[in-house]
Each structure stands twice: as C-alpha cells, then as structure tokens.
Design goal:
The chain is mostly helical and 163 residues long. Helices cover 68% and strands 0% of the residues. The chain is elongated and about 60 Å long.
Length: 163
Amino acid sequence: MVACLFKSKPRWCRRKEARPQELLAAALDLFVERGYAATRLDDVAAQAGVSKGTLYLYFTNKEELFKAVVRESVLPVLGEAEETIDRYEGSSETLLREIMLGWWQRIGNTKVAGISKLMVAESGNFPEVAKFYHEEVISRGTAVIGRVLERGVKRGEFRAIDT
C-alpha cells in the first residue's frame, strides 16, 4: 500500500497486532464512561479507529469484548498477587498490605475500578456477565485474601479466624 510509505500513517496502516489492544482500550473507556448497557460496539470501533466489521474479527459480541477487557486489565493483577504469595518470605501483615496497596495502585486508583462499579450497577440486568465477573474476579480475589490470612494464622501472626 503506497499510503503506508508516508511518515504520517493513516489508521489502516497500523499493525494488525495492535488492533485488539486498541479495541480493548476503547471498550474499557466506554464501558466505564457509559456502562455496559449503553456501550455500543459501533462506538467502540469508532473510538478505536476501526470499522465495526474489524471489531468482529476479534470479538464475536459485546459480552466477549467485556470479558476480554476484564481478562486484560484485572486478571493479570490477580495473577501477580498469587505469585507474590507463593514466593513471599516476609510477614503476612506486610504481604497483605503490599497486595492491597498493589491492588489500589493498579486497579482501585485507575479507570479500571469503573468495571467493579459497572458490575454493581448492572449485574441484575446482565446475569451471565455478572456470573463471569464473580467467577473470574470476585472469587479469585477473595481466595487471594484468604490465602494471605491463612498464611498469617499458620505462622502465628494472626489470630485464628474462619477465612
């Protein structure tokens, strides 16, 4: 394509590999700004600078796009917390603090926190999406905290509790 030889590349000259990330970034912005119900795939595609047809090459529907946003923006943070627990040698109190502050810095203090708010507001209208979020995020996050508490109880750092 001749147009791609120029210094300022038209949007269609971007690498194909970058498109899913661009779509996920646009979707995150719109889901947080408008909510799940009001976010249209046409708008996600437009904000990402692609056609709606291009969006469908990567995501079959809005639910799959939302799941991909969660998997890309939230689940890696949970994975890192799980890895930290596995290798952490300090006190359980410090570990718990690090995990909670890490969550705040990477999720709670960013636009990604809007996903949790969205789920609280719209889960009743979208039970399948809510079920996915609960299984992938809430249950896993609860397990992370439970593991730290159990670790602290076993080490005698926390009083015995039913985690």
